[in-house]
Design goal:
By secondary structure, this protein is mainly alpha-helical. It has a domain at about 80-285: MetI-like (MetI-like fold, Orthogonal Bundle), CATH 1.10.3720. Helix content is about 75%, strand content about 0%. The longest helix is centred in the last third of the chain and has 35 residues, at about 205-235. Residues about 5-15 and about 15-20 have low confidence and may be disordered.
Length: about 300
Amino acid sequence: MPVDDVYRRNAVNQPAVLRAAGVDRSDTASQTGLSLARHRNRRLVPHRLPPGGILLGPVALVVVWQIASMMGWLSPKILAAPSTAVLTGFDMLRSGVLVDHLLASAGRAYLGLAIGVASGLVFALVAGLCMTGEAAIDGLVQIKRAIPTLALIPLGILWLGIGDAMKVALIATSIPVYINTHAGLRGIDLRYVELARSVGLGNLEFLRRVVLPGALPGFLTGLRLAVTTCWTALVVLEQINTTNGIGYLMSRARDYGQTDIMVVGLAVYAILGLVSDSAVRLLERRALSYRKVLGS
């Protein structure tokens, strides 16, 4: 029997076969529609975290830490319990000691952050928009990336002394804004450049309407890294010839075996880093609200 006749015969007899099997065509169609609806409604991306959802991991860690301390599994000589550190922190707040050291650290960290962000943004614009600028700047920045900040401390002491100028300068050189902003500039679609040329935009208008909006996502990513990097660099730098600051407080507590004060210092660094990152995230969400992306 020809193949076409077989197909035609099967198509004609299909309703009879379904009736013989006790299957209604309407039920089959409804089941198929339900399966397609389920397939369309299936989420391929996760839901957005509710407010405060990012704190789930840290809170779980603190709970496990507290339980281990209460059960005696963790000696206070090795690491103080969270409850002990909280009481110590409140005592330091009431006496004003913690506030004084925090203000000293914040002044160094945010001054270095401001210098690093401003210089990184300018260098990225020059290197991203000018061939001569890229030749002069990009290679030096890539070399600096390969050199750890701690390795520059001896030279920083020789050049700038052991005061705050050295600490602020090393914090500024560790800010990673240049890399992300430069990558954002180089990732701008060439069609926007052609469109700007077609409508006759000048250099300043091109910078304002095409370059800066195109580099903004990369800049904000670099800023998120920068607000935490300035604090991680400060931890080590404040242990070099300082008489105030959170790093100095932790260094002195180490000499006397005061693990509760060391935990307070670590908690201050963690809270400041988390708050700074959350602030940049909020800025990023509002500045880039026009984008429809996975995290929106």
